[in-house]
């Protein structure tokens, strides 16, 4: 629980971490590329906070944590010890967790000693609605707007929901994991079914409701609102002074429309001195009140000396999903890396099919459909792409359909297209690099880059194969490429003419 976590971290540095370690070497999967190098140095103590992305170990923020023997702590104080297959019995993709343990020096693997499962909302669904164009579902729980995106929001498979967002209904009680934006909105990553109605919820669980969000208004030191939910904390345990904008977790029970809190926990960061931290979230309080800083789920981040991946510093804005890495020093995460968390990026011409839908022509392949939804997509003011290029960040919904998270005016109309997405499959013999899995994990990509037209080292003008801005030969490019690596490819005047591996570590 949060109260336990607060005691574990506090200002005690690493007093929580006494670990017996071994080094774990894992090979990256992929169509013909190399693997992850085994760790050769001493592991670094630290923690990660983010979404469970997969298993076979537990993958959080791209790091594969060995979890055999680790303790898992759930809300309401329930704990288990992971052994064998128990990780998949109690954990699901999309759950939000904090992982305590260590990182190997390759940055890709680690060892977990404890996982804290950390949901954001627990309560009754109301006002459920589905966008007919985009399929995005919105509903309210305790005054917080929940956004559930097909293809991005996982659903409890072993319940009446049967893993399907379409089975959600008003009146159901659910537990929601996700990323709060501090404005009363939660982007859901996992939804767990709790009960069909209030009576069943009270009978089958502790009957304790929960919400996480930023305080939007205060009428007294212990009476405030989070979103539209009014909260009375006069008899609650509170771990610090409250103010407008403070991100809090609140637990309690409804008395009419007022949530009578038993616990108010200020989400005040992940520690005071931590050697390595990897945290994912939605940007809040960008440069407010201090330039060069923002917060991620209550953790203050200083990005003034960070290297940006998948974008530049100017792309930062409140509400964007990012991952920050670095040490925590005196309570501030001094970011060395900021990664933008979108599976697909594009610069070039688009066709505006209607107010909610864009289309992108893919050389030699099917067009990509880009959906715009006001709940998810952040666009430039007065955006008009009728005769303009666009800069797009998006993620797969289904097949060749994606939903945009950010759309900007590209500044002109050009014959050049730039695609950036994870590599799915590749073959030097076939001169082919396939990008962007359609979500089916079929092994085929939606964008097939023909590398036969890209200059190699023997061309008079030199090679147009690169690894993180370093010019390499075609052979070295393919030898270095792994499935899952981010690749940027340019199509200009009718041919593919440049390709680059965008390294993340």
Explain what you see.
The chain has about 500 residues and is mainly β. Among the domains are: about 1-115, no CATH class; about 275-340, Nucleic acid-binding proteins (OB fold (Dihydrolipoamide Acetyltransferase, E2P), Beta Barrel), CATH 2.40.50; about 350-415, no CATH class; about 415-505, OB fold (Dihydrolipoamide Acetyltransferase, E2P). About 5% of the residues lie in helices and about 50% in strands. Strands 1, 2, 3, 4, 5, 6, 7, 21, 22, 23, 24, 25, 26 and 27 form a 14-stranded mixed sheet that branches. Strands 28, 29, 30, 31, 32, 33, 34, 35, 36, 37, 38, 39, 40 and 41 form a 14-stranded mixed sheet that branches. Strands 8, 9, 10, 11, 12, 13 and 14 form a seven-stranded mixed sheet that branches. The longest helix has 8 residues, at about 1-10. It is globular. The protein starts with a helix and ends with a strand.
Provide a short characterization of the protein structure.
The protein is 5% helix and 48% strand. It is mainly β and 505 residues long. The longest helix has 8 residues, at 2-9.
Biggest sheet record: 14 strands, mixed
The percent range for strand residues is: over 45%
Q: Find the structural class using helix and strand composition.
A: mainly beta
Q: How many β-strand runs? A: 41
Described by the principal axes of the CA atoms, the overall outline is: globular
* Number of continuous helical runs: 4
Radius of gyration: 23 Å
Mean pLDDT, to the nearest integer, reads 86
Stretches where pLDDT is under 50 for at least 5 consecutive residues are 1-39
DSSP helix fraction = under 10%
Ends distance: 32 Å
């Amino acid at each position: 629980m949060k109260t336990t976590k607060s005691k574990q971290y506090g200002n005690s540095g690493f007093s929580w971490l006494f670990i017996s370690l071994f080094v774990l070497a894992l090979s990256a999967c992929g169509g013909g590329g190399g693997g992850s190098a085994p760790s050769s140095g001493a592991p670094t103590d630290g923690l990660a906070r983010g979404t469970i992305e997969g298993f076979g170990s537990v993958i959080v923020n791209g790091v594969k944590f060995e979890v055999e023997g680790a303790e898992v702590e759930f809300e309401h104080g329930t704990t288990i010890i992971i052994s064998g297959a128990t990780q998949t019995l109690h954990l699901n993709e999309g759950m939000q967790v904090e992982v305590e343990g260590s990182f190997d020096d390759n940055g890709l693997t680690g060892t977990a000693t404890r996982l804290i499962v950390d949901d954001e909302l627990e309560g009754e669904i109301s006002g459920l609605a589905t966008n007919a164009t985009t399929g995005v579902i919105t509903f309210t729980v305790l005054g917080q707007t929940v956004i559930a995106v097909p293809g991005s929001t996982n659903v409890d498979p072993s319940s009446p929901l049967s893993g399907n967002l379409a089975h959600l209904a008003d009146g159901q009680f659910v537990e929601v994991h996700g990323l709060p934006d501090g404005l009363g909105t939660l982007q859901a990553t996992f939804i767990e079914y709790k009960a069909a109605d209030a009576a069943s919820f009270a009978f089958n669980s502790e009957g304790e409701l929960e919400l996480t969000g930023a305080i939007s208004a205060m009428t007294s030191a212990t009476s405030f609102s989070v979103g539209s939910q009014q909260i009375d904390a006069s008899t609650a345990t509170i771990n610090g002074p409250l103010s407008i904008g403070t991100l809090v977790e609140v637990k309690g029970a409804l008395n009419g429309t007022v949530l009578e809190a038993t616990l108010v926990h200020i989400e005040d960061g992940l520690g005071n001195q931590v050697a390595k931290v990897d945290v994912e979230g939605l940007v809040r309080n960008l440069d407010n009140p201090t330039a060069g800083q923002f917060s991620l789920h209550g953790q203050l981040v200083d990005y003034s000396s960070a290297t940006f991946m998948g974008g530049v510093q100017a792309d930062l804005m409140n509400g964007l999903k990012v991952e920050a890495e670095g040490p925590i020093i005196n309570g501030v995460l001094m970011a060395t890396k900021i990664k933008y968390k979108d599976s697909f990026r594009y610069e070039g011409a688009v066709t505006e099919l209607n107010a909610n839908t864009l289309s992108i022509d893919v050389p030699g392949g099917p067009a990509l459909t880009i959906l715009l939804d006001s709940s998810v997509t952040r666009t430039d003011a007065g955006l008009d792409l009728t005769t303009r290029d666009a800069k797009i960040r998006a993620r797969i919904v289904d097949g060749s359909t994606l939903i945009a998270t950010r759309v900007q005016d590209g500044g002109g109309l050009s014959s050049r297209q730039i695609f950036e997405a994870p590599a799915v499959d590749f073959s030097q013999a076939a001169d082919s690099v396939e990008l962007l899995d359609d979500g089916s994990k079929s092994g085929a990509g939606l964008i097939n880059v023909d590398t036969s037209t890209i200059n190699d080292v023997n061309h008079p003008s030199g090679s147009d194969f690169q690894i993180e801005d370093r010019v390499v030969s075609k052979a070295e490019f393919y030898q270095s490429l792994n499935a899952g690596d981010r690749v940027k490819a340019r199509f200009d005047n009718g041919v593919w003419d440049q390709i680059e591996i965008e390294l993340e570590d």
